[in-house]
Amino acid sequence: MNFEVIKTYILCILVGLSLLLTFSLWNYNPRYDYLSDSDYLDEIDFGGEVLSKKEIIKPSTFVFKQGSNYYGFSNPKLMESLYHDMQSWHLENFQVGPVSKPPTNNEQVIIRFSDALPLEVLSSLTSLEDVEFPTWQFDTIYITLDTVRSTLQLQVMSTDGQKRVTATVNNATKFQLIQNYMNDREKLVDYVRYDVAEKPLFIPMEAVKMIRRPVTINTIPARSIVNALFNNPQSARRNVSPNVNEVYYTDGQRGLTIFQESRHMEFYNPIQAGTEQLDAVSLLDRSILNINEFKGWKANEYRLEKLNTPLQQISYRMHYEGYPVFSSNDITTIDQTWVNQELSLYDRPLFSLNYSFEGTQDVLPSGHEVIEFIEENDKYTPELISDIQIGYRLNHEDSTLYNYTLQPAWYMKYNGNWKEINISDDYMDRGVE
């Protein structure tokens, strides 16, 4: 075999290897660590906890009624303790039927939630199991007392006020527990009823003393957010905005903006609108599971605030020691929008409230003064008020530090949005010499 023939064989082999390599490159699919990989998920942790519906859905109003008088807890933690106990009560004699008005019993407990809930969530909030629930929604639970039998009756009314479900607590110990709370004036404060909305509002009657609290925060690292929200985090390009307080990440489809000064994020995943909507329970379950995947909760810090099934939107508000927390730039809520059963919009704080230091005492106006202020203020239409709460305003004391202050304040939900009720000192001092 001469030299030219050998070169021809070698050349053929090289051409064949080249074709094989080219074919392999065309068909190569790199293996990324997608979020569905359980080992990868274990590496992503927002530093929080995994919570259930029972821990996230809590009342916004808890009132005791005795005759024409109304009372509420002086400390929200007492409400949380009683509500937690109620969730374990054994309920029996479940019935569904029509109703024309709320119960009128002289002694009762009124429990109201911040938004309408599907009746099916009662299986998660109470001991009711293996029950076929109607499909309507509710936002108020009434507990009435039968002093003859020492029993309690749970009444859950539909939001339209036309239907209800009832169940009985046949337990004298629980009956006595409610009576004890009703009669313990050291733990209760007088409430005033304000008949302004479709349903009456209940707020503390007298001036309220609260502590203005300096607090520190814990933050969620930006890299944890990127790893959680992008299927292939390595492909997410980082861009620093001309506004130095904003950092933007994108993989060509999804976008994530991190606002460094206010410490919150906005995530956008464009999904073409379709017909596959989640029902109310599925929307709630999917959202909680999504946040649980990366331990995105802190115990007792968030509560469900809004569940809008038609728009596929859900919101959770930050709380501190039982009080809702608000902010001027709306950074104290977790907000999600789902499209075609996928997460499309996701806004949330990138911090959790941590240690509280010794603060100073504030005295808030009384409920009577708040009502008088609203009624006399021309810029408010009282019929547009659906809720009034005492809460905290979150103030950022120094953008370069992790120092915040929780300042007590009155808030009202006006035309669907929360607004601070600013009653000036001049208004409070009217008639004072």
What does this structure look like?
This protein has 433 residues and is α+β, with helices and mostly antiparallel strands. The chain folds into two domains: 251 residues, TATA-Binding Protein (2-Layer Sandwich), CATH 3.30.310; 111 residues, no CATH class. The chain starts with a helix and ends in a 5-residue tail after the last helix. About 5% of the residues have low confidence.
Mean pLDDT: 87
- Please give the alpha-carbon distance between the first and last residues: 122 Å
Q: Quickly give the structural class.
A: alpha+beta
- Number of E strands: 24
CATH fold label of the largest domain: TATA-Binding Protein
Uncertain residue segments: 22-42
The largest pleated sheet is described as: 15 strands, mixed
Return the domain count. 2
CATH homologous superfamily descriptor of the largest domain: YycH protein, domain 2
**Computed CA radius of gyration, to the nearest angstrom:** 28 Å
Q: Rough shape?
A: globular
Judging by the overall fold, what is the CATH architecture of the largest domain? 2-Layer Sandwich
**Number of DSSP helices?**
10
Instruction: Give the strand content.
Output: 35-45%
Q: Into which percent range does the helicity of residues fall?
A: 10-25%
